[in-house]
Design brief:
This protein is of the alpha+beta class and 170 residues long. 38% of the residues lie in helices and 21% in strands. It is built from five helices and five strands, in the order βββααββααα. The strands form two sheets. It has a three-stranded antiparallel β-sheet. A two-stranded antiparallel ribbon has the order 1-2. A hairpin with a 4-residue loop joins β4 and β5. The protein is globular.
Length: 170
């Protein structure tokens, strides 16, 4: 599979890690992980948030604002929500292309109100609405992002979502 370079591809992050002999020791990685772990305010907040997320996730993809934003950004490889620690925390797990700042701003632009809704249930949420407090929201995400144990594995570390879609004929 070739690895096209497109003008819409974000600037890569260079990562150096121990790799098998078949791969170069230094590779350019465009994909980045986010492991966002947030603490819920209360059991009642879990119930409300769980109902709200199930509502969004139960909508057809073309009506789901989260799916629409994920697709529209053209930078998200996958995303999922997981309740953790006996429903006291919410985990958001994604892999995205480019910088965290670009990723966060794209979602604030597309679904800022959805983040306001989610964050209203968090114990230590940043000021809302996120659209008016972008830097605080970014700082909150950075503070709650659990770093991965490197190296972050990807079958296609130098391909963006747009590259993969282009190569797949989608």
């Amino acid at each position: 599979m070739t690895e096209p370079s497109t003008p819409s591809s974000p600037a890569p992050d260079t990562q150096t890690s121990a790799t098998p002999a078949t791969q170069p020791a230094t590779q350019t990685r465009v994909q980045n992980p986010l492991t966002l772990i947030m603490t819920l305010k209360s059991p009642e907040d879990f119930e409300q948030l769980n109902a709200q997320l199930r509502h969004f996730q139960g909508l057809p993809p073309e009506q789901n604002p989260l799916n629409q934003a994920l697709t529209a950004t053209g930078m998200v490889h996958f995303a999922r929500f997981v309740f953790l620690e006996n429903n006291t925390k919410l985990g958001v797990f994604t892999a995205y292309d480019g910088s965290l700042d670009r990723y966060v701003n794209a979602f604030v632009d597309k679904v800022g109100q959805v983040f306001d809704l989610l964050l209203s249930h968090m114990a230590d949420a940043p000021p809302l609405p996120v659209e008016q407090h972008r830097q605080e929201f970014l700082a909150y995400i950075q503070a709650h992002d659990v770093p991965v144990v490197e190296p972050f594995y990807s079958a296609y570390p130098t391909l963006t979502v747009l590259d993969i879609l282009s190569n797949s004929g989608s």
